[in-house]
Specification:
Number of strands: 17
CATH topology of the largest domain: Aspartate Aminotransferase, domain 2
Order of helices and strands: HEEEHHHEHEHHEHEEEHEEEHHEEHEEEH
Strand content: 15-25%
CATH superfamily of the largest domain: Type I PLP-dependent aspartate aminotransferase-like (Major domain)
Structural class: alpha/beta
Shape: globular
CATH class of the largest domain: Alpha Beta
Helix content: 25-40%
Radius of gyration: 22 Å
Length: 417
């Protein structure tokens, strides 16, 4: 039976109204949720169950690249679900091949492995680095350096890689083979490499974010990363960059590493890659592609549905010139937030970020916290998200307009007033 001859089915009834208390009765309470029930979205705006409109500067935490209900995504989802939505990776998948080709042609990578999330992409990178260390470098006990205040995911390996004890508490024993260094501190990193160099143990890889997202929207120092690239080349260490939050145009460039003037050996993507449809990717250069059949796999990773939609997101970035928009709107947003900073210098320490990932940093000595500012902004009709206790994060869809940025700035100022 062809798609054109499918029998129409009765429309599915929408979810019944429920309260947050009813929700928490059935869903694991591993999130501290705001008491809002979101029902629909259009562009950069969403509406709750009571019909109230919000300007969405969370975008699923830097995920809804094209906002909500973008016509290109609606068309791609409809087309692909009517054609083929899932098959095993035991067969060739045209949509996966096309997406991999686009990513390779638009990055420094030569190969792509597809999965479902940022954590899985980072897991793949960790496994690839370990196999490379054993089979190519001959390291018996490879160590991966990561940074304090980093965030790399919620699996056991990726929370171990995450240099924040609050994410690791009560989940020990953690995965061995990781060592932490301060971010943007070259002397500490070089000292760690020397300290860990023994006959049986060596640093095999360095895993960093080009800009720390969950760690407080802290951009990497260009000279720091360029020296790390040099060190990796000198010592045969793999450089892995976590692009899960800063990739896919979020910084005003397609990849975060482009802001630093370097190329990684391996990097990871997710979040904005699918525009809200779950997909992750581990991308690498051919020299370190040591995976063989059976080494790593993912049932859902790279299926036709996810790849078909992600390819549409990629193509729309080009067609609608969204990298240019991210740069322009990001600069507009930072200028507006800096004007607020000048008005409240005793409250706000600084504004920092790249493109459309920005942080409003509250002074440590004030009692006001980022979650409190987020609650005040919600009351004004603006959705924001914290990046730690003292940083308010702004990550709107890349389609955000100048008028919407101005509206968000005005709402933030009212929230702080």
């Amino acid at each position: 039976m062809s798609p054109d001859t499918l029998t129409p089915v009765a429309s599915i009834a929408p979810p019944q109204a429920f309260s947050p208390a009813e929700f928490d009765e059935y869903v694991v309470t591993s999130y501290a949720r705001f008491p809002i029930i979101l029902e629909r979205g259009q562009g950069c705006r969403v509406w709750d169950s009571e019909g109230r409109e919000y300007l969405d500067f969370v975008a699923g935490i830097a995920t809804c690249t094209l906002g909500h209900a973008h016509p290109a995504m609606v068309e791609a989802v409809t087309r692909q679900i009517q054609k083929l939505h899932h098959v095993s990776n035991l067969f060739y998948i045209p949509e996966q091949g096309e997406l991999a080709k686009w990513l390779v042609h638009h990055s420094c990578a030569d190969r792509v492995f597809f999965c479902n999330s940022g954590a899985e992409a980072n897991e793949a990178a960790i496994k690839l680095a370990r196999k490379y260390a054993h089979t190519v470098l001959g390291i018996e006990n490879p160590v991966i350096l990561t940074a304090h205040a980093s965030f790399h995911g919620r699996t056991l390996a990726t929370i171990t890689a995450t240099g924040q004890p609050k994410y690791q508490q009560n989940f020990n024993p953690l995965v061995p083979g990781f060592h932490y260094v301060p971010y943007n501190d070259l002397a500490a990193l070089e000292a760690a490499i020397a300290q860990l160099d023994t006959p049986t143990r060596q640093v095999a890889a360095i895993l960093l974010e080009g800009l720390q997202g969950e760690g407080g929207v802290r951009p990497g120092d260009r000279a720091y990363f360029q020296r790390i690239r040099q060190l990796c080349d000198e010592k045969g260490i793999l450089l892995i960059l976590d692009e899960v939050q800063v990739g896919m145009g979020r910084t005003g460039k397609l990849w975060g590493y482009e802001n630093l003037g370097i190329e990684p050996d391996i990097f990871t993507s997710a979040k904005g890659l699918g525009g809200g449809i779950p997909i992750g990717a581990m991308l690498c250069k051919s020299f370190c592609d040591v995976f063989k059949p059976g080494d790593h796999a993912s049932t859902f990773g790279g299926n036709p549905f996810a790849c078909g939609v992600a390819l549409t997101v990629c193509q729309t970035l080009d067609r609608e010139h969204l990298l240019e928009n991210a740069r322009a709107r990001g600069e507009q947003l930072r200028q507006g937030l800096r004007a607020i900073t000048q008005k409240y210098p005793n409250l706000i320490a600084e504004v920092r970020g790249w493109g459309l990932i920005n942080g409003l940093v509250l002074r440590e000595e004030v009692e006001l916290t980022a979650p409190e500012v987020v609650k005040r902004a919600i009351a004004e009709g603006l959705l924001l998200v914290p990046a730690g206790p003292k940083v308010v994060r702004f990550v709107p869809p890349l389609i955000v307009t100048a008028d919407e940025v101005e509206a968000a700035i005005a709402m933030v100022e009212r929230a702080l007033a």
